[in-house]
Design goal:
Strand content: 25-35%
Largest sheet: 6 strands, antiparallel
Strand order of the largest sheet: 1-2-6-5-4-3
Helix content: 10-25%
Number of strands: 6
Shape: globular
Number of helices: 4
């Protein structure tokens, strides 16, 4: 992910998605629930969060973090400004970090705890400039 951010340019819209964790839990009646945490550099920008199209579904938590409101889907997403040392100027706003937790069986409270913990861990691992603050409570 560091290398992708370092090689980023303003017109670059192709970003890899990384599965950070995938857990299968047995479900009643057979089958399994799958919980997955993913991360990628977003094609969305911090400026795009002001666009009415995105402002309907994304909510700003602080100056560095946006959460996608519950959409009725079994998932939750965060957009975080994460400046990578050695990347082009403006990378943290033009190429924010997007993380998601997808699951069919967790309650919203459990999902937000999982996503918040995952996001804080990834922000620390990437040594994001500006030390983005990921709140424990993502939905109010």
């Amino acid at each position: 992910m560091d290398r992708e951010a370092e090689e980023w340019s303003v017109d670059d819209l192709l970003h890899n998605s990384y599965s950070a964790c995938r857990i299968q839990l047995p479900a009643e009646g057979g089958g399994a629930f799958v919980i997955e945490a993913t991360a990628q550099w977003s094609v969305l920008t911090v400026d795009s969060m002001n666009d009415p199209k995105f402002a309907k579904s994304w909510r700003q938590l602080n100056d560095q973090v946006f959460v996608e409101s519950e959409t009725g889907q079994p998932s939750m997403e965060l957009l975080v400004t994460c400046g990578v040392p050695g990347a082009a100027a403006g990378q943290e706003a033009g190429l924010p970090l997007q993380m998601a937790v997808t699951d069919p069986g967790l309650a919203v409270d459990q999902r937000q705890v999982l996503l918040s913990t995952f996001a804080r861990t990834l922000v620390d691992e990437l040594s994001c400039a500006g030390d983005p603050v990921i709140p424990a409570q993502l939905l109010r």
